[in-house]
Write a structure and sequence with these properties.
234 residues, alpha+beta, 4 strands, 56% helix, disordered C terminus, transmembrane, DUF4191 domain-containing protein, membrane, transmembrane helix
C-alpha cells in the first residue's frame, strides 16, 4: 500500500496539469468559459442551499449542493472543451482521421486510403456497421475519390455494406463534431467475427499492394515490359 501512494500522488499533479492545459486551450476559443463555469457552480449550489433552508437542513443540502455543483461544472466544462476542440480542428487536414481514432471500441481506422494531388483525402473505418468511407476536402473533388474507393470495396468485400460520408458544413455533409455520433447511429449488421474477417481481407489487400515490385521512379521512354515472367527467357 505504501508503494502505491507515491504513484497516486505523482499522478494527481499530472491530471491537474492536464486539466489546466485543457482550460487554457478552451479559453482561447471560448472567452466566457470562466464566467460560465462559475455561474453554473454558483447557481446549482445556491438552489440546493435555498432548498436546505426551506426544509430545515441547510448543512446537508449545502454539502449535496457542493458535490452537484462540482459535477455540473465538470459536465459543462467537458462539453464546451469538446466544442472548442472541434472548432479549432474544423477545416484542418487530417481532422476527420483524428475523430475516427476516437470513435470507440470495435472500430478499426485506416487513414488516407485514397488521396489526390489537391490533398483531398478519404479515410476508412471498419466496424459492425460495415465499412465507412469518410472524405474531407473539396466536396466536388472528393466525390470522385469516394466513388472509386467505394467501387473497390464493393469488388473486394461485396458482402459488406459500404457507407460514405463527406465532412463539411454544406448540404448533405456531416459536421466534424457530429461525425462520431453519425457513425455510431449506423445500423449494426456485422458480427464480431465478420468484422475481423473484413479487416483481414482489407489488410491482406494492403500488404499485397505494398509488396508489388513497382519502380520508384518514372518509366524511361521507349522501355517495354517483357512479355514473359523473366525477360531472359526468350
Amino acid at each position: 500500500m505504501a508503494r502505491k501512494e507515491p504513484a497516486a500522488d505523482a499522478a494527481n499533479p499530472g491530471r491537474l496539469k492536464q486539466i489546466a492545459l485543457t482550460y487554457k486551450m478552451t479559453r482561447k476559443a471560448d472567452k466566457k468559459i470562466g464566467l460560465v463555469l462559475a455561474g453554473v457552480g454558483i447557481v446549482v449550489f445556491g438552489v440546493f442551499l435555498a432548498i436546505g433552508f426551506l426544509i430545515g437542513h441547510p448543512i446537508y443540502l449545502g454539502i449535496l449542493g457542493v458535490l452537484l455543483a462540482f459535477l455540473a461544472t465538470a459536465i459543462v466544462f467537458g462539453r464546451r472543451a469538446e466544442r472548442a476542440a472541434f472548432g479549432q480542428m474544423e477545416g484542418q487536414p487530417g481532422a476527420a482521421a483524428a475523430v475516427l481514432d476516437n470513435v470507440g471500441r470495435g472500430w478499426t481506422t485506416t487513414p488516407a486510403v485514397a488521396m489526390n494531388r489537391s490533398q483531398d483525402v478519404v479515410h476508412r473505418a471498419v466496424g459492425k456497421a460495415g465499412i465507412v468511407l469518410v472524405a474531407e476536402g473539396n466536396p466536388n473533388r472528393v466525390k470522385t475519390l469516394l466513388a472509386a474507393e467505394k467501387k473497390k470495396m464493393n469488388r473486394i468485400v461485396a458482402d459488406v455494406p459500404v457507407h460514405d460520408l463527406i465532412v463539411g458544413t454544406g448540404e448533405g455533409q456531416v459536421e466534424l463534431k457530429k461525425l462520431r455520433t453519425t457513425m455510431l447511429k449506423l445500423p449494426r449488421v456485422l458480427s464480431g467475427p465478420q468484422v475481423t474477417a473484413t479487416n483481414d481481407r482489407l489488410r491482406a489487400l494492403g500488404d499485397l499492394m505494398s509488396n508489388m515490385p513497382l519502380p520508384k521512379g518514372p518509366m524511361p521512354k521507349g522501355m517495354r515490359m517483357p512479355r514473359g515472367g523473366n525477360p531472359r527467357q526468350r
